[in-house]
Structures are given as C-alpha cells and as structure tokens.
Amino acid sequence: WMAPVALIAGFGAAIVGYLVVAIIGSAAGASAADPPPAVQIIATVLQDGALIGAAVLFARLSGTRPQAWQFGLRRTPILPAFGWAALTYVGYLVFSAAWVSALGIKQKDDLPDQLGADKSTVALVAVAVLVTVVAPIAEEFFFRGFFFTALRSWKGPWPAAILTALVFGGIHAGSAPAGYLVPLAAFGFGLCVLYWRTGSLLPCIALHCVNNCVALGVTQGWGWEIPVIIVAASAVIGCPDTEWGERVVA
C-alpha cells in the first residue's frame, strides 16, 4: 500500500510547493497566468525533491532505517549492465518509432519551452540541468527504487513493472504530447526490467539521462551538442558513485 500512497503524498507536497513558489513569484511581480521560467523550474525541482522525500519517508515507516542499497543505489558489473541498458534502449526506440509511424504523430515534446528554455541562455542551462540530471535521479529513485520495489514484493516483478510503467507514463501527461504517453510507459517498463536484471538503479539513471539528453537535443535542433551534454550530465550525476545516495537516505 505504500507505493500508491507515497505517490499521492509526493505529488501533494509538490502541489503545495508550486503554490508557495507561485505566490512568492506573484508577490515579486510575476504573472500568475504566465509564470516566468524561474517559477516553473523551481516548482519542477520541488516536485522531484518531493518524490525523493516521499520515497524515503514511507520506506522509514517500515520500522527500520532504509539503506541506499535497498533503493538500488549499488554498483553492478559494467558489461552486463551496458548490455541490458543497450537492449532496453533499442527496444524502446523501435517501439516508439513503430508507434509514432502507425499513429502518424507529428507533435514534438515542448517541455523545455514550457519551462522557458527559449527565453534566455540562463533558462536553457537551468532546464538542461533539470531535465538531464535532476529528473533522471529523482524519477528513478522513486519509480524504480521505491515504487517498483514495493509493488514487486507484493505481486512479483512482471505485474509490478506493468503497474509502474502505467503510472510512469501517466505522470507525464502534463508535460508530453498525449501520443507519446504509451512509448513513455514502454520506456518505464524497460527501466523496471533493467533494474530487476542488473540489481542496480545506476544503469537506469544513466539510461534515463541519455534518453533525456537526446530528447532535449532534438527539441532544440542540436547536433554535436547532444553527445557533449550526455557526457556532461553523466559526469555531474556521477553514476559510478553511490555516496550521494547514502546522504539522501540518511
């Protein structure tokens, strides 16, 4: 029962955080109907932080202090992890291409512009950090490290992966075109399998980071910048190191 309740609590806290940020922004002269990039970005960061906080809080309700490894923050052999990650990503790309082609979807992801990436260089950099670093860490920590793990102990890995995938796709309804929600759910399913097979959340964070870097680059019309931001974002996340996870759980 902790999985759905933690999800509701996390987004409830995120809504409260957004309202506080919006009120402060309005008091500073920002438009409530068209919030500036700073308000949107800060509110989204608070949402990601609320998900992590909800996962840790509800894990502690079990009566014992949770450890970072219980959320999947542990090292795993590189070659098998790379193989599973590559298989997951190729499968996702093939499915997405088939889905988009079958439905004739022409829409593009406009989340970066919704967050104000087109307003200034500073906003673009902030959005890039949010999309390629903060979101992969927070979403993987909650959805694979906590949500999938909790459901897996209840019904096993396959039902847990399906349920997690549906929720993962659904929570992107406000930020992604409707036609992309099913491919996103498929990606969420693949990430659950990746976590299950490798026993580590780190490959999931890395793959999520790569996918978001590519998606951001495509929306901005980038070329050579895409591999550069992948390397930069991966370096910031520090996927081989789990010390940040120990600090978060503590």
Description:
The protein is mostly helical and 250 residues long. 74% of the residues lie in helices and 0% in strands. Helix 2 (37-60) packs parallel to helix 5 (121-155), helix 5 (121-155) packs antiparallel against helix 6 (157-170) and helix 7 packs antiparallel against helix 8. The longest helix is centred in the middle third of the chain and has 35 residues, at 121-155. The radius of gyration is 18 Å and the shape is globular. The model has no long low-confidence stretch (mean pLDDT 86).
Provide the descriptors you would attach to this structure in a database record.
single chain; 0% strand; 10 helices; mainly alpha; 250 residues
Radius of gyration: 18 Å
Instruction: Tell the overall outline.
Output: globular
Question: Main beta sheet, described?
Answer: none
Q: Note the total helix count.
A: 10
- Look at the structure and give the mean pLDDT: 86
Sequence of secondary-structure elements: HHHHHHHHHH
Number of strands: 0
Helix content: over 70%
Structure at a glance:
By secondary structure, this protein is mainly α. The chain is built from ten helices and no strands. The protein has helices at about 1-25, 35-60, 80-105, 110-115, 120-155, 155-170, 180-200, 200-220, 225-235, 245-250.
